[in-house]
Structures are given as structure tokens and as C-alpha cells.
Amino acid sequence: MSLINMAKREINCKIVYYGIGLCGKTTNLHYIHQAVNPHDVGEMVSIDTETERTLYFDLLPLELGKIHGFNIRFQLYTVPGQILYQQTRISVLKGADCVIFVADSQASKLQENIECWNELQEQLRRMNKDTASFPLVMQWNKRDLQDTLPVSVLEKYLNPYRVPSFEAVAVTGKGVIESLRVGINSTLRKLERI
What Gene3D superfamilies does the record point to (predicted)? Predict the structure, then answer.
């Protein structure tokens, strides 16, 4: 849930990139960090293992100006995708205002993506979030690789709520900013209803 600091006239929102290991969550944040105006973005904090995989989270603070006299700040996090870090994923997900689910489009990754999607839904339910109305964005990443599934298959298995979805190639930035923009707008619409 967004943190509102009345004294500082500041609203902090949290967007979490969720998905299996090596699906491109951290690559999304690296691309955003380079693409956004340096005045609007803070330092990227990343904690990696020796094999360059995210161990805890990546954090990228993003300033979006003012709305109704409040400074709006988005903090972008990624969860570790490795199965062994389930508890860490749960901790990072707490307080999320929006989730961008990054799916690896390769056919060989479908079952892992489905298991990860089911885990996300279960965690949102445990946090008393209605998955059908919670701000979600689906990103079909790695569309440049061989052996990718048709988008219709990904939609069938991973997008039962028909939330906005984007084809992406995070290493080149294709679909990255579009996914983030929809995530930010969904979060802001939710804030307006509070």
C-alpha cells in the first residue's frame, strides 16, 4: 500500500517485478535506469550472487513530479526468481501497489512461469488482495529468442484476468517503458480512489 507522508507532502508507491529466475526482471530495471532522465531517477541498488543473479532485490527510485501538491515517488523492486528464495519474494511483495509479472516466453519455461504465477496469486490472496482487481501488468519477455510460445498461449495460461500485457525484449528496451507506464497509471488510478 502506498505510504503517504503528510508532513513531507510525499507519496511513495511500490511496483514489484515478479517472475522466474533469469526472466529479465533486473534487465527491466537496468534499462529503465538508463532510459529515464537522470534527474528523475535515483541510484540503483542491486544485490547479486556470484553468478549475477539477484539475491534479495533491486531497487530503483523514480521521481514523477507532483500530483495535488504531493511529490510522487515510485520504488521499483524485483524479487529473486530462484525457488529457494520464496520467503524473500514474499517479503519484497509486501506493500506492493502494483506487480509487473515478467514471463520468460520460451516454451521450455512455461511450467515454471505457471508455478510462479500461481505462487504470486496465492501470496496476494494471503495479503487480502483481490487478484482480479489488483493492479497487474503482464510482460511477455524474451520475444527475440527462438522457441518462444505464441502470445495467445501465454495469455491463456498466465493472464486469466485479461490485464494489460506487452511483448518485450528487455535487453533492447522493447516493451519495458510501456509496461512500466501502465503499471504507474494503474497505481495512480488506485490512489485516486483512496
Answer: P-loop containing nucleotide triphosphate hydrolases
27: closest CA among 9, 63, 52, 2?
A: 52
**pTM summary value:** 0.92
Backbone angles phi, psi at 46, to 5 degrees: -140, 130
**Cα angle 124-179-92, degrees, rounded to a multiple of 5:** 35
The angle that helices 86-93 and 110-126 make with each other, rounded to 10 degrees, is 50
Q: Tally Cβ neighbours within 10 Å of residue 115.
A: 12
Q: At 111, which helix (H) or strand (E)?
A: helix 110-126
Q: Give DSSP secondary structure letters for 133-159.
A: TS-EEEEEE-TTSSSBPPHHHHHHHH-
Could you give phi then psi for residue 149, rounded to 5 degrees?
-75, 150
- The residue ranges of the chain whose pLDDT is under 50 are 55-57
